[in-house]
Amino acid sequence: MKQEQLIVRQGQLDDLPELQKLFVDTVTTICNADYDQQQIEVWTSGIDNKQRWEDIVTKQFSLVAQQDNKIVGFATLDNGNYIDLFYVHKDHQRQGIAGKLYADIETEARRLKQTTLTSDVSKTARLFFESNGFKILTEQIVSKKGIDLINYKMTKTLGCPNI
Ligand SMILES: CC(C)(COP(=O)(O)OP(=O)(O)OC[C@H]1O[C@@H](n2cnc3c(N)ncnc32)[C@H](O)[C@@H]1OP(=O)(O)O)[C@@H](O)C(=O)NCCC(=O)NCCS
């Protein structure tokens, strides 16, 4: 069967169930190489925060990548300069989906005349962010429900694209 082209569009409220399933599946199967069972459980329990998830599509700039009518990745930009959520479907890793989403996120930040992008990046996503020009500012220990997780505060300076 011919694969449909990947489309990138803005996220909407009725995407939330599929986004949350993708998030849980990806963290459980892809991030378990870098985080233990307890850490994964605490991380995925983030879906219980209904308001936070509604906010990512109503208050943030959210992009959804879709192929064959299925959501295969999503990324969100808060306040024009902070990459909040960034997840690709567990069965669609290393197909360039995050790269496409990232390009559109950076374009939006530049459109808003932002000079830097920052994110709190998981161990799993670190190499992806580095390959897109981000540098580690600090390694940090984040405590959620009494469980510690390591991630990285990363940043990228957005210079003039033509230089
Ligand atoms: C990080 C993530 C979003 C990357 O998505 P992806 O669609 O697989 O990434 P891409 O295919 O666009 O990768 C682009 C480039 O990034 C780099 N890269 C991405 N994943 C990598 C990995 N696991 N190891 C090494 N390099 C990697 C490579 O240079 C890659 O290019 P290549 O495939 O030609 O070598 C995805 O792995 C993911 O969902 N991870 C788990 C969730 C997560 O931790 N999210 C971030 C929360 S901050």
Overview features:
34% strand, 32% helix, binds coenzyme A, Aminopeptidase, 5 helices, 163 residues
What does this structure look like?
- There is one protein chain.
- The chain has 163 residues and is α+β, with helices and mostly antiparallel strands.
- The chain has one domain (7-157): Gcn5-related N-acetyltransferase (GNAT) (Aminopeptidase), CATH 3.40.630.
- It contains five helices and seven strands; from the N terminus they run E-H-H-H-E-E-E-H-E-H-E-E.
- It is globular, with a radius of gyration of 16 Å.
- The N and C termini lie far apart (43 Å).
- The model has no long low-confidence stretch (mean pLDDT 96).
- Coenzyme A binds at residues 26, 30-31, 86-88, 93-99, 121-122, 124-125, 127-128, 131.
Task: Specify the overall morphology.
Answer: globular
Task: Please mark out the parts with pLDDT under 50 across 5 or more consecutive residues, or reply none.
Answer: none
* Beta strands, count: 7
Describe the main β-sheet briefly: 7 strands, mixed
**CATH class group:** Alpha Beta
Measured between the Cα atoms of the first and last residue, the distance is: 43 Å
SSE order, one letter for each helix or strand = EHHHEEEHEHEE
How are the strands of the largest sheet arranged? 1-2-3-4-5-7-6
Indicate how many domains the architecture comprises: 1
User: What's the gyration radius in Å?
Assistant: 16 Å
In the CATH scheme, what's the topology name? Aminopeptidase
Hetero groups bound?
A: coenzyme A
Q: How large a portion of the residues is in β-strands, by DSSP E? A: 25-35%
Please name the fourth-level CATH homologous superfamily.
Gcn5-related N-acetyltransferase (GNAT)
Number of helices: 5
Average pLDDT score? 96
Secondary structure: helix percent: 25-40%
Instruction: Based on the coordinates given, report the CATH architecture.
Output: 3-Layer(aba) Sandwich
Helix- and strand-based class?
alpha+beta
